[in-house]
Amino acid sequence: MATRSREITPTFDTIAWRWMRYSGILLIPLAWFHVVLQDVIVGVHAIDINYVALRLANIGWVIYDLFLLGFTFAHGMYGLRQVLFDFVHTERARRNWSVFLFTFWLVVTIIGTIALVKGARPELA
Amino acid sequence: MAATSSTIKKTVTGYALYMGREGHYAFILHRLTGLGTLLFLIIHILDTSTVYFFPSLYEHAIAIYRSTPFMLGEIALVFAVIYHGVNGIRLAIVDLWLPAKWTVKFNRNSVRFSFVLSVLLWTPAAAWMFLSMLKHNFAIDVLAMLGLG
Questions:
Q1: Residues 6+ apart with CB under 8 A from B5
Q2: Fewer CB within 10 A of the end CB, N or C, for chain B?
Q3: B6 touches chain A (CB under 8 A)
Q4: Does the residue B84 lie in any domain?
Q5: Angle between helices A59-84 and A91-118 (to 10 degrees)
Q6: Residue B106 lies in a domain
Q7: Do the domain assignments include residue B9?
Q8: pLDDT tens, N- to C-terminus, chain A (125 residues)
Q9: CATH 1.20.1300 describes domain A14-124
Q10: CA gap B143, A7 in Å, rounded
Q11: For B4-57, what is each residue's pLDDT tens digit?
């Protein structure tokens, strides 16, 4: 069966469609390794603020976690937007949801980024 | 507003009653695992951020994660992350490189394959986490009882 193709003008959603796939592929090693390491190998009973402080003292892990934060959360919030757009059909409501989701994404991403870059403060715990 | 609520009802019943077999189940499972992972992710980013913003609260957050209901939830979360990834890479490969493979037959087979692969990848992780929960929350050290600890 031959595939048809035609030129389309790139829009936010056509670009996002591609990036959902690119980020998804990247997240397989990034997110899986994170989950296997922290949840299975280390386990929640071995995790405390000193462990996090030790981990975030390593620039390599900070960069790893920044990638994880950037790609996973944007992927997830765009996915939520796709699900919501199955239920929300008017231009106005879609626009309002987009503004809300974007703002929420930005605020949580900034909070996470600050925490990662500044690191843990076990001395205040 | 009446139009909006009937649209939502139509969407929900459409989600549930559409008879698309494997592709339909994969679609539903992909959405549920994605939304579940996102919900966890939001909580996880914010509670982990307490290590900088409110260091004294982090201990309380971790104590919640160590509770039995949350450890069972984490086992489910691992399935969600594995299934969403396996099914997602199936979609990405076909969408980006093999669009001609978007046939009903190939789709049904690849859905079955990705579900079985997900369960196979999840089982050892789930078993390990379950044993860890028994050991820490119920003082039952299965590995030691078997002489493996």
A1: none
A2: N
A3: no
A4: yes
A5: 170
A6: yes
A7: no
A8: 566 778 888 999 999 999 999 999 999 999 999 999 999 999 999 999 999 999 999 999 999 999 999 999 999 999 999 999 999 999 999 999 999 999 999 999 999 999 999 999 999 98
A9: yes
A10: 60
A11: 666 788 888 888 888 888 999 999 999 999 999 999 999 999 999 999 999 999
Amino acid type, B110:
S
Closest partner residue to B66 (CB to CB) among A44, A111, A124 is: A44
Q: For residue A38, give the 3-state DSSP assignment.
A: helix
Domain, as residue range, for B42: 21-145
CA distance B147 to chain A (A): 20
Residue with tokens 């860890």: B132
Take residue B26 and report the two structure tokens written for it.
């994969």
Residue B90 lies in a domain: yes
Domain ranges of chain A: 14-124
Going from the C-alpha of A88 to that of each of A64, A100, B3, B42, B135, the distances in angstroms are 35, 14, 11, 22, 47
CATH number at residue B109: 1.20.1300.10
Chain B CA closest to residue A81: B35
